[in-house]
Write a structure and sequence with these properties.
Number of helices: 11
Number of domains: 1
Number of strands: 0
Low-confidence stretches: none
Distance between the termini: 29 Å
Largest sheet: none
Mean pLDDT: 83
Shape: globular
Structural class: mainly alpha
């Protein structure tokens, strides 16, 4: 019976995803782990992220160029591998503290200051090629993913302070989709995908679909100021979660 709660949980989580482009794991991981276990919910989320990002891919993709996107994805994957390698040598608690102290002020900054910058609030023009800063932030974000399992916040901060909400989504969605595909592939190769996991994925689909629909409608209506506040709050919450581990 408790597994049925995945339906309302996925609805709430993917309303958040539809509005902010990232962050469903902030809701699904702690609450879903209480229902079905941490390992199982993490694998379920990888499938749901794949499906949700694939369905959001059609929005604002005209703003993006592959010459900008592909290097970022490649660097993110490299960073993830480096992070995973570091994790074998250094206790994760050190990195949780470091990343938590980094994300909390960044999230608060983007909540408070970002919406005041009208120049970047209206910036729908994505660069033709990724800059050194873009690639450096992507590498750091990938390392964070390998070390702590949290992918989005650092990159969300960088893109959120640079672009409008439409351009932000056009960049983040393909990156998160590539990450989800890689995670599902790893779980498949390692034999971690069980019938129970697939059943939970199917159970969550109605909540996911309705949540994305509601979230996307809110995304279209929300102002840039409030979008920045939502994104900033998710980044700050990610930092708090790392500090409390």
């Amino acid at each position: 019976m408790s597994a049925l709660l995945i339906i309302p949980l996925s609805f709430i989580a993917y309303v958040l995803k539809g509005v902010a482009t990232f962050g469903p794991g902030i809701i699904l991981v702690p609450l879903g782990a209480l229902l079905i276990g941490t390992k199982e919910i993490v694998i379920v989320i990888s499938f749901l992220d794949l499906i949700s990002n694939a369905s959001l891919l059609k929005f604002n993709r005209d703003l993006l160029t592959t010459s900008f996107l592909i290097p970022i994805i490649a660097v993110m994957i490299t960073g993830s591998a480096l992070g995973a390698a570091l994790l074998a040598w250094v206790p994760s608690s050190y990195f949780d503290l470091m990343f938590g102290l980094l994300l909390l002020p960044l999230g608060l900054w983007i909540m408070i200051a970002r919406g005041r910058d009208q120049k970047t609030s209206n910036n729908n023009v994505v660069a033709a090629r990724a800059s050194k800063t873009d690639l450096s932030i992507s590498l750091l974000s990938g390392c964070m993913s390998g070390l702590s399992g949290i992918t989005g916040p650092v990159l969300a901060w960088h893109l959120g302070k640079t672009y409008s909400k439409e351009a932000f989504r056009s960049i983040m969605i393909p990156i998160l989709l590539a990450s989800a595909i890689a995670r599902v592939g790893v779980y498949a190769v390692s034999g971690s995908i069980s019938v129970e996991v697939l059943t939970l994925v199917l159970m969550a689909l109605p909540g996911l679909g309705l949540g994305l629909w509601v979230g996307n409608r809110l995304f279209l209506q929300i102002s840039q100021v409030w979008f920045s506040r939502v994104v900033g709050s998710l980044i700050a919450v990610s930092g708090i979660k790392l500090l409390l581990r």
